[in-house]
Description:
By secondary structure, this protein is α+β, with helices and mostly antiparallel strands. Helix content is 13%, strand content 25%. The strands form six sheets. It has a five-stranded mixed beta sheet with strand order 5-4-13-8-9. Strands 6, 7, 10, 11 and 12 form a five-stranded antiparallel beta sheet that branches. A hairpin with a 2-residue loop joins strand 10 and strand 11.
Amino acid sequence: xxxxxxxxxxxxxxSRRERFIQRRKFLMATGSLAGVGVxxxxxxxxxxxxxxxxxxxxxxxxxTAxxxxxxxPTPDEPAQQEPSLAxxxxxxxxxxxxxxxxxAAERATYxxxxxxxxxxxxxxxxxxxxxxxxxxxxxxxGLVDDEVDLSMEEIKHSFATDSVTHTMQCAGNGRSxxxxxxxxxxxxxxxxxxxxxxxxxxxxxxxYYGAETSEDYFLTVMGGEHPEGEDVxxxxxxxxxxxxxxxxxxxxxxxxxxxxxxxxxxxxxxxWYGCNNVKWVNRMHVMETxxxxxxxxEEGAPENGQRTYTHWQQYSYRVVPEExxxxxxxxxxxxxxxxxxxxxxxxxxxxxxxxxxxxxxxxYPGEGQTVSPxxxxxIEVIGVAWAGDDAVETVEVSTDGGNSWGEAEFFGPVDEASxxxxxxxxxxxxxxxxxxxxxxxxxxxxxxxxxxISAPDDQLRGVESDQFPWNTGGYGNNAYxxxxxxxxxxx
Length: 491
């Protein structure tokens, strides 16, 4: 399956990107976007659009491939070029074309319940591989009765099937708001999306092949996209989470996962940061500890001694203050919830980016947008909020830059805690002029988004004094003033 088959061409009136943007503007102008969330379905699709509940519309869904003209191009007929990343995903702001990285370009994405592929962020460490599903397999090794190579046919049809709505967010989302700036892709607000994923429960596979599934063990999962001689993207997931709700996902919003999102199969860890949701899975290894130590750093490593399996588990995706030379490596930790880790700095020097922390985003009004009150003299502020494995308890909205707050109300579907909640706030009698809007979420445990990011000199490892800790990787930012926006009220 080629990427060409999964995308529209640019033929017709205007580019696909232009058509997408015009459609977005029309829906926002008519107030249709907020309604989409209310109607959104939560199951995996068949002949309907899971974002609208309407019959599939090829203008907004991944289209069916057209017959391919295999005739050899003549000198007067140049070969057709594969659509660019921007053409394939017109709802994204592209940070790098290869490896492919892009985030939602507009705040309007965060008025819907289900995020379309066109707007769902892409985070790749290496270029998207070209994979034939029929030739792909996933090996199960380590502490199991029988080591095995599973074909995609076996994964899809020999075990149970499940679907889950999951708010997937890059651990670096909000990195561009750090001051001073840190390295890496400069994500702003848009490296997060909410989609329905369908796949096979990993617990079923592990139990069938006699794996050691005690809660103090780990499943180390590896991606198969790395070029020869490069680090293998590897994450160790605690077994208690694996046995609870982790999937090998092959469908996204009711149709096969696109190549840039992990086709033919990726790990789906509901509620946890995107870095744990390994793409292009080709090996699962049951073990007693996280992946750590010389055995995993040297196994198959080239002569330069680069870290072959441990880089993205032990060195990266960690909360490291400026004073540290690097992250402390652990075989295991007492808690996996990221916010709880940040509260237990006496036991964990540098939190691992596992379960997502509480966060919210305003989708309407958008940044710099001019809006007018309704005939009743009100403006409806719309957004989404999530807290990983934990339910969001309340969302508050400020229209004066955080000086005062009013409680929003939830609307739309109620799925697992792993999927975000939509909220609305009725802004009564807004005054004309510019306003700074912010939102803050509180989860069921009482954790609330902090206001700002600390200074590096504060050397914070957790949330203190209403500040999120500045860290060298720019990970986990949920400070509400970072994500505030300005809009103008016209009366």
